[in-house]
């Protein structure tokens, strides 16, 4: 049986049954000299292919890392943070706008805290968002609800929910909802003022301030493309301080959807957690984006502040 296994590969090469009769011993000797080389060639080829695959994977991972740039988690979702603040140099964005002493940022940075809003309060705020967004919703993956202006995503467009739904709004929201909303806004405003050493009375709520609901549905319009890097002060000139209150939990309610500060060479990531507040000065020192949501639903509310009273807006009232 062993002789047959050795002879089998020589069939095509040796002319079948005539091989042994025509100098079989010499031919067998040639086979023996080639035999050890074949496994070595196959092993070398496999090794080269394996190295090439490993190199390709490494380059692909490097490109992905360069695109995402996520190298440090500033606020893990599983960790309750009392207060965390990082000071960074201010950009020149504020120089092209009117400055307001005691408010316009001279100290810039970013902070995160789980000690301002409780998880129970975040759940109550989320229910306000869910009820409001139940009236509409985008055809794509990103829907917004602005209780101040009344803007609500509906299909591929926006409507004013107060005009579009009229008295039905009274069945969706209560005055207690709006009172909680105002109280949460005030506490976040005070925390921002404390962190940046400004007078909270000199800060004004500004637009847009809105709830967001994001899922993995494919974008249908540019309004659904929430993941692009941007600077709030450039996008909305009135912004001086931006805050986000997260209303759902990363890895539990949704995957993806982390908030990423895009720093030179080393990005910083905030993982959402219900009740977590992140806040930052709105200039180019805090270029940022949101990762695409891969599954589940991510709820948050963006609450923005200006130092210019001309751009201030009032708290929402139940009409």
Structure description:
There is one protein chain. This protein is of the alpha+beta class. The protein is 32% helix and 25% strand. It has 9 helices and 16 strands. The protein has helices spanning 2-7, 11-14, 24-34, 37-68, 119-133, 161-165, 169-172, 175-196, 232-235, and strands spanning 70-75, 84-88, 108-113, 137-138, 142-145, 151-155, 157-160, 204-214, 241-246, 254-256, 259-261, 267-270, 277-281, 288-290, 293-296, 298-306. It has a 7-stranded antiparallel β-sheet with strand order 2-3-13-9-16-8-5, with helices on one face. It has a 4-stranded mixed β-sheet with strand order 1-12-11-14. A 3-stranded mixed β-sheet has the order 4-6-7. Helix 5 (119-133) crosses helix 8. The protein is globular. The relative contact order is 0.17. Residues 1-34 and 53-67 have low confidence and may be disordered.
Strand-helix topology:
Blueprint: H1 2-7, H2 11-14, H3 24-34, H4 37-68, E1 70-75, E2 84-88, E3 108-113, H5 119-133, E4 137-138, E5 142-145, E6 151-155, E7 157-160, H6 161-165, H7 169-172, H8 175-196, E8 204-214, H9 232-235, E9 241-246, E10 254-256, E11 259-261, E12 267-270, E13 277-281, E14 288-290, E15 293-296, E16 298-306
Parallel strand pairs: 1-12, 4-6
Antiparallel strand pairs: 2-3, 3-13, 5-8, 6-7, 8-16, 9-13, 9-16, 10-15, 11-12, 11-14
Helix pairs in contact: 5-8
């Amino acid at each position: 049986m062993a002789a047959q296994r050795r002879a089998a590969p020589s069939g095509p090469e040796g002319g079948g049954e005539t091989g042994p009769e025509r100098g079989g011993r010499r031919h067998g000797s040639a086979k023996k000299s080639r035999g050890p080389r074949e496994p070595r060639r196959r092993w070398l080829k496999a090794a080269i292919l394996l190295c090439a695959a490993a190199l390709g994977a490494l380059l692909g991972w490097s490109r992905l890392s360069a695109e995402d740039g996520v190298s440090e988690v500033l606020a893990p979702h599983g960790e309750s943070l009392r207060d965390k603040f990082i000071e960074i140099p201010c950009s020149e964005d504020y120089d092209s706008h009117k400055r307001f002493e005691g408010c316009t940022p001279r100290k810039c940075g970013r902070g995160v805290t789980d000690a301002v809003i409780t998880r129970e309060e975040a759940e109550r705020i989320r229910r306000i968002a869910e009820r409001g967004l139940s009236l509409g919703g985008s055809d794509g993956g990103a829907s917004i609800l602005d209780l101040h202006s009344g803007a609500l995503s509906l299909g591929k467009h926006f409507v004013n929910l107060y005009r579009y739904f009229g008295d039905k709004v009274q069945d969706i929201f209560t005055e207690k909802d709006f009172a909680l909303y105002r109280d949460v806004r005030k506490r976040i405003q005070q925390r921002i003022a404390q962190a940046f050493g400004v007078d909270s009375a000199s800060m004004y709520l500004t637009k847009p301030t809105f709830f967001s609901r994001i899922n993995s549905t494919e974008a249908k319009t540019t309004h659904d493309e929430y993941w692009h890097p941007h600077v709030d002060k450039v996008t909305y000139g009135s912004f001086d301080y931006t805050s986000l209150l997260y209303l759902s939990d990363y890895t539990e309610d949704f995957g993806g959807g982390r908030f990423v500060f895009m720093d030179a060479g080393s990005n910083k990531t905030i993982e959402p957690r219900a009740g977590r507040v992140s806040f930052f000065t709105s200039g180019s020192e805090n270029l940022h984006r949101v990762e695409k949501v891969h599954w589940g639903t991510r709820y948050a509310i963006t609450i923005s502040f200006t130092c210019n009273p001309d751009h201030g807006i009032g708290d929402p009232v139940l009409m």
